Amino acid sequence: MPETSRRGLLFGTAAVSAGALLTACTSNEPKKETPAADSRPAADDKPGKHVTIGFAGPKADHGWLNAINENAKARAGKYSDVTLEITGGSNDIAAQIGQIDTLINKKVDVLVILPADGKALTQVGLKAMKAGIPVVNLDRVFASPQAYRCWIGGDNYGMGLNAGRFIGERLKDKPDAKVVELAGMDNLELTKQRTQGFDDALKNYPNIKKVARQAADFTVETGQAKMAQLLQAQKQFDALWNHDDDQGVGALRAIQQAGRDDFLMVGGAGAKSAMDAIKADDSVLKATVLYPPTMAASAIDLARALGQGKGVGGLSELEIPASLTLYSAVVTKDNVDEYLPTGFR
């Protein structure tokens, strides 16, 4: 690829409307118009230069990961000038590298990559960038900023922080309050960040003490088993912070089986099942902190715009930002109707 063309791709600007992207990534307040990604008006949907986008993610063996794939496909389908080349997905690092290599060899215009392991896949991101294919790094960040043109993802620290603030405000007047934590996978940096955010928030509430923590590996079965252990070990506590709504399905089963209703529960990610339970208000689950899979739709917007060399509506800069962090909104009974259409299954 000629250097001028390569430079145009790597430093070209993106066309993503302020309503479709900036609201999703920066707003701290719930909006009345927050439908699911596949029903929002596509950003700058006036047809332009045709763009082939390669999309590579891990295996969709989890509700959130499946929603990532569905959001990407639905968003690409809104554009008549976009062809989406999507891989089968894999949690095996070597297999995912091979899938991305195939997309590079096909000479797609832009790559969107959600790596199974950001550090381990950094080299293939660098390879794509060196080949003149700009990379939109989705969620799990590569080890080098040279491996991507733009990163977009959720705020793991913010999830824990907002969960802790919500619980803290509910328990701030209760002497000697106790909380427990059902984490995800402890070998993942995102889990450490969620725990750190939670712990930092609780520092503002000296009356609250975290008395137990278990890692539940993001599965329904492990969520149920680990929650049962917590319930047996902790005969009394006031709140539970659960990192993930999928494992939360199992946690709620264990809670119901134990006949416990003496505490409040805050979930994480934004599954439809969790939002339904919050709306029904007939269980301990009172809130969930979002980690929106709609980020995949915004990644497609960014990729299309990079390929077309367009700009971001509502911003003065000529280039798209180097990174975009989505806000971790807290969904409660008061605002669940606004967020329910974005809930994933």
From TrEMBL:
Keywords: Signal. Residues 27-49 are annotated as: Disordered. It is found in: Cell envelope. Its main location: other. Residues 29-48 have a biased composition (Basic and acidic residues). Residues 53-310 form the Periplasmic binding protein domain. The keyword Signal applies. It comes from the Bacteria. InterPro entries: Peripla_BP_I (IPR028082), SBP_2_dom (IPR025997), TAT_signal (IPR006311). Belongs to the bacterial solute-binding protein 2 family. This is Substrate-binding domain-containing protein. It comes from Streptomyces sannanensis.
